[in-house]
Amino acid sequence: MKLPVIKQLTQFIEDNDADYIIETIETLEHLTEVPSLKDEELDVIGELISNMYGALEVSKMIKDGQPKKEALNAFMKRVLGAIDA
User: Fold this and answer.
1) Which helix (H) or strand (E) holds 65?
2) Cβ contacts of residue 3 below 8 Å, gap of 6+?
3) How many Cβ atoms from other residues are within 10 Å of residue 54's Cβ?
């Protein structure tokens, strides 16, 4: 996951609507079923999907009242904690 990408997507959600991200995730997930995709292509799609899910989570934290910077930091700490475990 890339914090700058999640930050940009979170801003997109604030400016527009989370439905755009949800529909994009659904589209990308559907694309992963193409049998001719190479592993590298699947990795890129997977990274995009994970960043979008991260942005949705951060957006939810912000809607629940957490300041944007704190929500981003808390999310990344949680992600890094999960990786270290």
Assistant:
1) none
2) 72, 76
3) 23
Residues near 76 by Cβ (< 8 Å), separated by ≥ 6?
Answer: 1, 3, 6
DSSP line for 39-56: HHHHHHHHHHHHHHHHHH
**Which token pair is 25?**
């995730």
Indicate the DSSP class of residue 64. Answer: T
Model confidence pLDDT, tens digit, residues 16-56 = 999 999 999 999 999 999 999 999 999 999 999 999 999 99
Q: What angle do CA 59, 79, 22 make, to 5 degrees?
A: 40
Burial of 55 (0-12, 13-18, 19+ CB in 10 A): buried
Q: pLDDT tens across 46-77, in order? A: 999 999 999 999 999 999 999 999 999 999 88
Q: How far apart are CA 60 and CA 18, in angstroms?
A: 10
